[in-house]
Design brief:
With about 180 residues, this protein is of the alpha+beta class. The protein has 4 helices and 7 strands. It has helices at about 1-15, 70-75, 80-85, 125-135, and strands at about 45-50, 55-65, 100-105, 110-115, 150-155, 160-165, 170-175. Helix 2 runs antiparallel to helix 4 (about 125-135). It starts with a helix and ends in a 9-residue tail after the last strand.
Length: about 180
Amino acid sequence: MRRHVVWLTALLTAALAGCGVGETGPASAGPPASGLRAPGSVRYYAQVYFVGPYGVQAVARRVKPPAGPQQALDLLLEGPDAAERARGLITEVPAMPGRPTATAGTGAVDLYLPVPVARMSGGGLGVTQLVCTAANAQVPGGKQPPAVDVRVHEADTPGIWTVRCNAAGNVLPVPNASPSSP
């Protein structure tokens, strides 16, 4: 029995000694934390959606006041900047005769497209970019995505359809919302 205790003690000592934690002193961990805002300094960002190798992706663009839907759409229509293009981001929002516009209501955004979606080249991803960018702008009423309704108005097309942008950047119809007439 004593032999087993000695063997078990030796095995346990060897296991604990080889746990991979060496005797080291303090190690340099780099510069102090940075990026914290000074009290009273507020920065605002607009969330703009581009298309990347793995689908629709949000990027943050710095803005002066809190960005409303139109300001966010204008940033989207400028296209990705050099750093975003280097990450493989592009836009699928096609050139259109006119600019999409957006207005914020309480908990909702009205998105006005200058052409019907059916006439937009590559329409699916471009529409997703437009809807998600508008939905993620500052909207009165305290609603946050994915609870923000985006009412899409297409030029020369009767009716309005209501969608939402979920956390994954997918556009989904609003449950129990039916197309309505303007």
